[in-house]
């Protein structure tokens, strides 16, 4: 039975077992090029979420019935990618539970490149922290209206936590420094170095 007929979510270790057994599968990573360059699951193909045209992807892929295992950093972007595929009429996607981060934490092998860009969520944290601290300082010393800045960033974090969608992360992912490593690429991009698990 096809994997997607029994589940739409798979833990990293189960996915690794299926791949080791030769189960038909395609790995799709929808993070930014910089994140992919820093570390990715071996064999994964990079198509950033903001560039993913599900219909075009499926047309290029051809008539295949093997499932597409979709992952990002922790799962949020992968879910939105799967929604794109579903709208395109393809329902054979499987979400990799916890994304690349969970794969790494499970001690499974990853391919690492030379990216020196901070992870996207750390960039978000830096921007939110900087704007909030600046707004609070200006509200205390210049004008109380500056208190709107930490209010807006706080509401943004609340919405991101409730919905899994972070507009700031989407915006930052499009910045030039996060596009290093180029467009859609296969597992050979970003001068990869194989890292074997430590356990």
The coarse silhouette is elongated
Strand arrangement in the largest pleated sheet: 1-5-4-2-3
Structural class: alpha/beta
CATH superfamily of the largest domain: Rhodanese-like domain
The CATH architecture of the largest domain is: 3-Layer(aba) Sandwich
How do the helices and strands follow one another from N- to C-terminus? Answer: HEHEHEHEHEHEHHHE
CATH class categorisation of the largest domain: Alpha Beta
Distance between the ends = 31 Å
Q: What share of residues are in beta strands?
A: 5-15%
Q: Tally the helices: what do you get?
A: 9
* Largest β sheet strand count, sense and barrel closure: 5 strands, parallel
Number of strands: 7
- Mean pLDDT, rounded to whole units? 83
CATH topology of the largest domain: Oxidized Rhodanese, domain 1
| Structural Rg | 19 Å
Which spans have pLDDT < 50 for at least 5 consecutive residues? 1-6, 182-199
Number of domains in the coordinates? 2
Portion of residues in helices? 40-55%
Please give a structural write-up.
This protein is α/β, with parallel strands linked by helices. It has 2 domains: 3-116 and 180-195, 3-Layer(aba) Sandwich (Oxidized Rhodanese, domain 1), CATH 3.40.250; 120-173, no CATH class. Helix content is 46%, strand content 11%. The chain has 9 helices and 7 strands; from the N terminus they run αβαβαβαβαβαβαααβ. The strands form 2 sheets. It has a 5-stranded parallel sheet. Helix 7 (120-141) packs antiparallel against helix 8 (148-163) and helix 7 (120-141) packs across helix 9. The model is unreliable at 1-6 and 182-199 (pLDDT under 50).
């Amino acid at each position: 039975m096809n994997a997607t007929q029994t589940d739409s979510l798979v833990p990293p270790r189960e996915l690794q077992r299926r791949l080791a057994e030769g189960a038909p599968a395609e790995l799709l990573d929808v993070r930014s090029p910089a994140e992919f360059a820093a570390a990715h699951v071996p064999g994964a193909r990079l198509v950033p979420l903001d560039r993913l045209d599900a219909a075009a992807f499926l047309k290029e892929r051809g008539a295949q019935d093997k499932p597409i295992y979709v992952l990002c950093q922790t799962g949020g972007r992968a879910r939105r990618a799967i929604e794109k595929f579903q709208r395109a009429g393809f329902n054979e996607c499987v979400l990799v539970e916890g994304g690349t981060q969970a794969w790494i934490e499970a001690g499974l092998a990853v391919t690492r490149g030379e990216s020196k860009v901070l992870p996207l969520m750390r960039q978000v944290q830096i921007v939110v922290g900087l704007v909030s601290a600046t707004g609070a300082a200006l509200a205390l010393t210049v004008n109380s209206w500056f208190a709107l800045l930490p209010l807006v960033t706080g509401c943004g974090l609340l919405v991101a936590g409730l919905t899994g969608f972070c507009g700031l992360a989407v915006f930052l992912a499009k910045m030039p420094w996060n596009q290093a490593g180029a467009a859609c690429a296969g597992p050979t991009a970003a001068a990869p170095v194989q890292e074997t698990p430590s356990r």
